[in-house]
Amino acid sequence: MELPVSVISLEDTPQCASSLLEAAKTLGFVYITVQDSVMPASRIDRMWELSKQFFSSPSEQKEKCVISKDNTGWMMRFETLDPKNQRQPDFKEAFNLGEFKDGKAQQPLPASFADNETELNEFQDLCHDLCLKLLRLFAIALNIDPAEGGAEWFTPRHCSPSGTTLRFLYYPTVAVGEYSPVLDIRAGAHSDYGSITLLFQRPSEPGLEIHHPITKSWHAVPVLPSAILVNIGDLLSYWTAGLLQSTVHRVVFPEPTNPEDAPQDRYSIAYFCHPVNETPLTPIPSEVVRSMGERGANATSGSEGGVLTAEGHLKEKLRATYGWKGREKDGT
Ligand SMILES: O=C(O)CCC(=O)C(=O)O
Ligand SMILES: [Fe+2]
């Protein structure tokens, strides 16, 4: 059954802030619509063009930027998002673009992106600004203590260096018979690791499913053209002592309408917004969060007895899902 995900028009108002918080507390996923000046449709269209340009480029070019231990680069059939339950890796290709510095990528760019560094950087900036707007609204709804930064509390905690990643995803058509719709999956069940994720999807390319936190069953997510899907990641959930839901989701092979038809390609783009690496995940100074009791960041210690940092959490997750097979940044 398809899940009705709330659609919120993004505005700088307390009402919008409380609607966002409500969606984040219940489902952990919400569609937002934004003014074209905030996220121009032409920019998103351009990213789809660049995505196709990259994924259709020769594999020798892609291999020059294979995934490295800093989680940047290209991978194919490499990640296993649900290592406990999957028998083989996700049926997908992905390219992870890490943070830029002074407008320049800090990783080798594939030949197919050689002329696009500026527009990739500008798109990342648009995504980052949008995430900061969302985080400001969460800060307002959580009523973060004004003396501690109030609405701006998240802002200085979301700059560089961080694990923030713009990820291009491609789930290729797989012929019927070459995969098991029961055992195999395009992206295994997982929750996202950072603060918030923006997900861009294309009409007629479904497949995303959400594990409903209350009914504990899987639901397909309808693709809404011109809306951006936002979901809460583990860190924001931890930071809010579990008030905000980091909901489990996956990407399945959609059932073909006609049994002879193979499931079609799916492209998606995810922007994973992470806090600064060294950020200690100590409780958010908010009465709402304090009232959640001793959970998440409200608990006295993180893993291994110390305070969990944003980077520590990300590294733990990547170790499990990459298993680790990637190369060091110096190419070893
Ligand atoms: O491709 C999608 O729709 C979702 C991808 C995803 O959930 C992820 O990479 O974390
Ligand atoms: Fe995800």
Automatic annotation (TrEMBL):
UniProt cross-references to Pfam families, sorted A to Z: 2OG-FeII_Oxy, DIOX_N
Domain of life per record: Eukaryota
InterPro entries: DIOX_N, IPNS-like_FE2OG_OXY, IPNS-like_sf, Iron_ascorbate_oxido_reductase, Oxoglu/Fe-dep_dioxygenase_dom
Assigned keywords, A-Z: Iron, Metal-binding, Oxidoreductase
Stretches assigned to the Fe2OG dioxygenase domain: 162-275
Family to which this protein belongs: Belongs to the iron/ascorbate-dependent oxidoreductase family.
Protein known as: Fe2OG dioxygenase domain-containing protein
Organism this protein belongs to: Discina gigas
